[in-house]
Amino acid sequence: MKWKGNKKFKEFITEDGYHLKAEYFQESKYWWIVYKNGKVLYRATSDTEYASSLQTAQAKAQQRMIRHLKSSTS
Q: Coil, strand, or helix at residue 27?
């Protein structure tokens, strides 16, 4: 996956409509969200879901997208 952005924000858009975002919002806290065709599938909403680095936030978003892909094809 080739993410675009800078050191405080990254995003990735797939050909099949997934849009993943990872973003810095507070010291040592990174927020992430997964969309599919404009609809929010999942968003980090609590301290336990936030990531401690941008790379970890990206990984969490990817894992959530994969989990959604597996559940929608089963």
A: coil
The model carries a pTM of 0.90
Question: Residue 19 has what pLDDT?
Answer: 98
Q: How many CB atoms lie within 10 A of CB 69?
A: 14
Annotated domain spans of the chain: 4-73
Which has the higher per-residue pLDDT, 47 or 73? 47
* Residue 47, Cβ density class (10 Å: 0-12 exposed, 13-18 middle, ≥19 buried): exposed
Centre a 10 Å sphere on the Cβ of residue 23 and count the other Cβ atoms it contains: 17
Q: Rounded to 5, what percent of the chain is helix, strand, coil?
A: 25, 40, 30
**Closest residue by Cα to residue 5 from 56, 58, 62:** 58
Tell me the average pLDDT across 21-42.
Answer: 95
